[in-house]
Amino acid sequence: MPGNKYNEDSKVPNTRVGRLLRERELRRNNRVHSFLDGNDVNRGIEIADHDLSNNSYVERYLEGAVQALSEGWERPDVRPTKQRLLVVANRLPVSAVRRREDSWSLEISAGGLVSALLGVKEFEARWIGWAGVNVPDEAGQRSLTKALAEKRCIPVFLDEEIVHQYYNGYCNNILWPLFHYLGLPQEDRLATTRSFQSQFTAYKKANQMFADVVNKHYEDGDVVWCHDYHLMFLPKCLKDCNSKMKVGWFLHTPFPSSEIHRTLPSRSELLRAVLAADLVGFHTYDYARHFVSACTRILGLEGTPEGVEDQGRLTRVAAFPIGIDSERFIHAVEVDHVQRRIKELKERFAGRKVMLGVDRLDMIKGIPQKILAFEKFLEENPHWHDKVVLLQIAVPTRTDVPEYQKLTSQVHEIVGRINGRFGTLTAVPIHHLDRSLDFHDLCALYSVTDVALVTSLRDGMNLVSYEFVACQDSKKGVLILSEFAGAAQSLGAGAILVNPWNITEVAAAIGQALNMPADEREKRHRHNFEHVTMHTAQQWAEFFVSELNDTVIEAQKRIRKVPPQIVISDAIRRYQESKNRLLILGFSGTLTAPVDSPGRRGDQIKEMELKLYPDLKGPLTMLCNDPNTTIVVLSGSPRTVLDDNFGDYNMWLAAENGMFLRCTRGVWMTTMPEHLNMDWVDSVKHVFEYFTERTPRSHFEHRETSLVWSYKYSDVEFGRLQARDMLQHLWTGPISNSSVDVVQGGRSVEVRAVGVTKGAAIDRILGEIVHGKSIGTPIDYVLSIGHFLGKDEDVYTFFEPELPPDSLGFSRTKGTDAIKLSVDKRVAPKIPSGRTSPTPHSKYNHIISTDKKLTSGSSKRVSPESTSWNVLDLKKENYFSCAVGRTRTNARYLLNSPDDVVAFLKELAEASSSSSSN
Predict the structure, then answer these.
(1) Which of 317, 363, 620, 672 sits a CA distance of 20 to 30 A from 508?
(2) What is each CA distance from 549 to 16, 121, 128, 555, in whole angstroms?
(3) What pLDDT, on a 0 to 100 scale, did the predictor assign at position 119?
(4) Rg of the chain in Å (alpha carbons)
(5) Residue 192: in which H helix or E strand, if any?
């Protein structure tokens, strides 16, 4: 594939960390060679005295593709040297203004994402997004597409209604406030609820429109990088179209705790859509942890140190703190134009310490809290009144929204009051500007600042802190940083961290910063400066794409270990061609009916009561009536549960992992060994009762041969902690010297006698079935379907023809244990079973000898009648072991859910019926 460095490379390390370290070294070497050779994707983009504006820099960056195109990047006869990166965001880095029908003026509108990616040189990047304008006619769309192509941009055309419902509605009124802990709009809750569904529908539709454009331009080997909360559905849309596409998703805002996210009506759909990505990235570990927790608590999935696992598929979740192009800011401060501006500002504020705040005028930026803290500082420190000034740059945003208009009025009111209270005729303590500054003015302002004040109430990262540090190499000012900004986890060691809600604490931090000794300022600045210059935007993007490439490699390795889906037509054809069939079916999670209840938790009472899938009654009856088919339901459930669900069918029931067995036309017998030690039961039961009392919504089940404690419906994390505590106690106390096995399920702990597994019981069950049915023809077809615990998956390997004898976890040749009939006190026939020598043909043939020994109340025995013959004549193509919903399995094949089991058995029953009629 183009640009994929991992393809056909035999020297790639086997471990993930090894591959990433190798990739890091390659990037460093390439960067050195590029510098020495004078080769640069963005050559010609130089920062000159007359060319410092952010827009001009971005424009030159985007136009860097023109020279690259002429050098063969797009020539069909030239193999691309760089991996293509499709950056998909809600907005393109340019805005379009229509001049004539086929003429457009493109205006640079660089945001945080564009600024972060300016220095990335490792990839051939293309931008896909909305151009910010409605273009209903095809002629206008064609001309705009052509104009944008020159700047490496590909437009997505959204109509006004979609933009209103998707962007202004769902993104800005629902997701953005929720992700910043502001909740849903309070003033018009009812209207929000009524319009929610239409907005969510528009959101999904818009995401599909983005996906259509990506699919149109996608080439094999491309990396698709989706950005932000506007495009949470995009990974699913892309994967539904092409499951092999490399898809990453990165969130630039905070991700809230699961308790906040669960209030969102579409919570589950959004999480599952994001999980379709191969790699999910966040600015900080806290946000990643919240996402994993939401998937665990809301979706019930398994959270791992690597990410989130769903039926064997792992979505990697990791933190990738974003950076800036620090060199650009460092060089900007040195040019003449900026130096003149720095000199002007120093003269303007001579004799006063300069404090600076640069924020969008937004609820989450904490501007009122910042100004109130500054007021408190002035109250408590009168000698600073004429020695310090706060410059607050508040960039207007969403000026048509009432909440933002109210915030603007509030800030102006506070500023006016403080200036009136502490100002003089010649100076005021606060200079407030409701506008943005151009790049060189901002760099000059950063350079003269003594204290930067970032008091975000909730912020994804906040790169203002990074920009300030990059411009402070000479001044070495102090950074006061909110602990609720993502940058606090990166710059926390060198900054003064504050809780912006605590006005007293922020005021004290201002005093500490203004009075900080020069040596301490030097140490703090050096730490932050090293971080900012080392963890750049380029490194951020390279790390993310490298991790994404490697995540795909890891996924491919896991897929190779996952069994394929069963080919139903093949299984049915083999079934029809066979003469004597054995079907072994699990119950829970295999034949059980789904409980129709809203939400993830489900209805605990209904789900605990296992019921046979109603649609299976007809197919099971047809299969049971086939004289050449024997069905065994093998379950861990008690006898009463199997009686209630299968009492009317002509089949064999094996309860409690095969420890109890009966034909539905007979009586229950036990297959337990005679000297099975159960002395441990009372002490384990006492432990289980204790933890059930301590763990809400947990329960335990006292079976005849085992004890099971389940925390499926409890809080996931608390349940796991309790289970870990329980296991530690069990191993050091009640079962420390007992012959028991502890079996851990997904959300359960089971204690059973040692050696009690479904596979271990099969030998005895098979012998009893042969005797009970008086089978005279060898079994030449076996179908085993179940959702079994790992401990019980030896049932699959028992019949496995391709396994050598010594690879099994138990012996298939040992004599059957004595069987005790528990109902009429008869002694069960001893059924020693053996196997011929493991030749290629006979290694899967079981030879069963039966000695009928019956008593009728006296000690006198009848003469033994002995028979010996091959019970199994099973070829590998006639054996179908199938796990339901478990990809980590010893089974040969997979079925995704009980619904698939139902569909399979229906087809099998129809085939059985047609074969019988023929």
Answers:
(1) 363
(2) 11, 17, 20, 10
(3) 56
(4) 35
(5) helix 189-217
